[in-house]
Write a structure and sequence with these properties.
- The protein is built from 1 helix and 8 strands, in the order αββββββββ.
- It is mainly beta.
- The protein has an 8-stranded antiparallel β-barrel with strand order 1-2-3-4-5-6-7-8.
Length: 142
């Protein structure tokens, strides 16, 4: 009987940990207009976390180029663009990396974390010094 109780507790903990995972596909939503903009895939590579745009939801913008970018990213397609780079796990969050806004051409320090009340919501926070803005992205079924 004790084995079954331990097994049930272990399974509940495993499900809870998996549900809090930031990895996978997320729908980005413009915080000003509420427009669903793109699907970003967040993944791990060499111990760091990255995110790239894998789908653009507005059919008129599918071929958009990063005209606000500078250097080697100037005029590169937004589709496939790596906007989140080099985050590492720090407690409940992933941070110490960057996020790039291809519309504004600006780089921000980034922090990602799954919403404590809803594991299907990703809190995406970009910082410049003490100022920050937060977006809430929705998990997409794989």
């Amino acid at each position: 009987m004790n084995k079954y109780i331990l097994l049930i507790i272990f399974l509940c903990i495993s499900i809870s940990v998996t549900a809090q995972d930031i990895f996978g596909k997320w729908k980005t939503i413009d915080d000003e207009t509420g427009e669903e903009k793109s699907i970003v895939e967040i993944y791990e590579k060499d111990g760091k976390v990255f995110g790239k745009i894998i789908e653009i939801l507005n059919p008129l913008k599918k071929d958009a180029l990063c005209t606000a970018c500078e250097g080697e990213d100037y005029n590169k397609p937004i589709l496939g663009f790596q906007l989140i780079k080099n985050l590492t796990k720090d407690g409940d969050y992933y941070k110490n990396g960057s996020i790039f806004d291809p519309q504004k051409g600006k780089m921000y320090t980034c922090r990602l974390g799954v919403d404590a009340d809803n594991p299907d919501v990703l809190e995406v926070r970009g910082y410049i010094a003490f100022f920050y803005a937060t977006q809430y992205w929705q998990r997409v079924d794989n």
